[in-house]
């Protein structure tokens, strides 16, 4: 029985340790690794977490996409996302349209700026 408990505990520990890495993006995966391109990346991270906490759907979980575009913006975005962990959400329906607009514009703007920095024509 003791041996079985150790095996189960080992499997649980391995599962818990592997979860964060399953969602993480490494710097080597980023298209652009220079300085942050969008000053509002922290605020966008907060908005996206707020929208997600409001129940607007998983489409607001865009950190991986941000990380694949720009490393420094990814770090800033995650910093903003983390700031919302301890906060409650209010006025969800009032600001849904604004959150949707921010979501749509941010990824487009970031992609365009990355391409511009890298000299890639659309």
Task: Sum up the structure in keywords.
single chain, 122 residues, mainly alpha, flat
Descriptive report:
With 122 residues, the chain is mainly alpha-helical. The chain has one domain. The chain is 64% helix and 0% strand. Helix 3 (63-69) runs antiparallel to helix 4. The longest helix is centred in the C-terminal third of the chain and has 23 residues, at 96-118. It starts with a helix and ends with a helix. Residues 18-22 have low confidence and may be disordered.
**Strand fraction band?**
under 5%
Tell me the radius of gyration: 18 Å
Q: How does the major sheet shape up?
A: none
So how many helices?
5
Poorly predicted residue ranges: 18-22
N- to C-terminal distance: 62 Å
Mean pLDDT: 86
The percentage helix is: 55-70%
The tally of beta strands, per DSSP, is: 0
Number of domains: 1
The H-and-E topology, N to C, reads as: HHHHH
What is the 3D form?
A: flat
| Class by alpha and beta content | mainly alpha
């Amino acid at each position: 029985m003791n041996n079985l408990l150790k095996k189960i505990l080992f499997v649980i520990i391995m599962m818990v340790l592997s979860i964060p890495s399953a969602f993480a993006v490494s710097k080597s995966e980023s298209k652009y690794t220079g300085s942050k391109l969008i000053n509002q990346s922290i605020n966008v991270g907060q908005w996206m977490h707020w929208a997600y906490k409001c129940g607007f759907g998983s489409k607001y979980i865009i950190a991986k996409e941000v990380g694949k575009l720009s490393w420094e913006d990814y770090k800033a975005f995650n910093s903003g996302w983390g700031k919302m962990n301890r906060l409650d959400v209010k006025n969800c329906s009032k600001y849904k349209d604004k959150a949707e607009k921010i979501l749509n514009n941010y990824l487009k703007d970031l992609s365009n700026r990355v391409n511009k920095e890298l000299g890639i024509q659309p």
